[in-house]
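Memo to structure team: turn this sequence into structure tokens by end of day. - J.P.
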Amino acid sequence: MNTDQLIIIGSGPAGYTAAIYAARAGLKPLVLAGAVTAGGALMNTTEVRLTGHLKRVVTGAGGTHEAPAVILATGSAYKELGLPEEKKFSGHGLSWCATCDGFFFRGQDIMAQRAKDNPKIRFAWNSAVTRIHGESKVTGVTLTDTRTGETREHGATGIFVAIGHLPRTELVIGQVELDAEGYIKVDAPTTVTNLSGVFACGDCAAALDAERYLAALDDADSIATALVEEPTHA
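Reply from structure team:
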């Protein structure tokens, strides 16, 4: 069993940034990254116990780590349409990040920014994508009118799904307080959660909050030790 001063669960930008700032502050951060899912997505971690002075994390490989402070940087995942064709066309005309992949569709018929005054953009109001067409790449979609139920086909070479995110907080359900959408609640403007020594990471401030928490623990331990060792005078 390894005892670390600070455990960071998540290896996306927020997790790594927290680790850098924590290390620069003299802490000993341990970053738990995913074995299969890269970035800030949910790690290959099977169990997290956040109550008590020492927090315990058991990884999928069977390793156990304990620390007085934990930063949760598990990130979020893109919401999907729930269509069977999504996995097939992912990277072949279907994307969840227009900023990342929009360049590849320059000059083609795609959904771009919300800009009503742009003559290149057409809008399909009150419509839902109910099917994606194509063989090796996207060629079009089926649109269903949400009011009448009528369907029509629309040609397209690129689809960008932008319907929000799902927080990756499955590991801490029932422990850390979450909001109605499953995001971790923090005591703004800090990153402090409802559990002592547990922080939710959205930026490097999580590491700074953890530093202050651990420094306070060290001070408390030092004071307690001094009181015990102080000689008694008659």
